[in-house]
Amino acid sequence: MITYSELRRELVGMFADAGIASAAVDSDLLITELAGISRPELFLCAGEPVPAELERHIRELARRRANREPLQYLLGVAYFMDLELEVTPAVLIPRPETELLAEYAVKHLPEGGSMLDLGTGSGAIALAVAAERPDVRITAVDVSSDALEVARRNRVRCGGEVRFLQSDLFSELPGERFDLVGANLPYVTQEEYPALEPEVRLFEPQLALTAPDGGFRLIERAARELADHLNPGGRAIFELSPPQAPRLAELFVKLGGFDEIDVLADYTRRDRFVSVRIAIQQ
Q1: End-to-end Cα distance, the chain
Q2: pLDDT digits 0-9 by tens, 158-168
Q3: Eight-state DSSP code of residue 18
Q4: Which residues are annotated as part of the binding site?
Q5: Angstrom distance (rounded) from CA 213 to CA 118
Q6: Can you say which residues are annotated as belonging to the binding site for S-adenosyl-L-methionine?
Q7: What's the number of CA atoms in the CB half-sphere (13 Å) around residue 254?
């Protein structure tokens, strides 16, 4: 029988040969998640034999990972802030930088305020904010019914009072206004899409990734409709690609009625967000 150490070494080599930069990390995660042990425990039992059924299961998923299927889809979970979320190919895998959008909402929402999460996907942003700010009323929308099924299961899994609705941006929210709108909408260009990593291009939903007009169409639509859905003094924050940040900031200037228009950086100091406040009429 093969030992944990031998199996780990084999997986690291397999993943490295497949061009996976995080070969060692992915090997550790795959083994520990399926074995139900921690990473330190993996090294403590390095010389112990791997049970035959567990080895079969690990090898089965390892072959799929070597074909560049995302580890999160293989395991069915992804981590976002303090949440463990279900993820399927119906939703994007939550990115670490998007946690900054959720943190912005937690910080800027008024006591007892209201929030709209545009393009909720797995529900990561809405549920993370709900966990930190149970005083806030949160609505989350997505155009994909399949994504909303995952989000609703995550609401049961993680808790939190979040209203999930199927809506094309604001289409099903006539007359509703919020203290904060968070938008993580598709922003990848059609030209960029073929060059994306295989994990993204081959497995994640293109509907949630790409948009026409240089990836800007949905962001622009949301920006133009935003004023009708913010309370006086309400704020919004958009996640987007760095080249789009100045374009969106300039659009808000041209639209008028907004102040505190800021471009915010992500963990790698790249311009990743644009935040605005709707001006309070004097």
Answers
A1: 76
A2: 999 999 999 99
A3: T
A4: 119-123, 142, 184
A5: 19
A6: 119-123, 142, 184
A7: 9
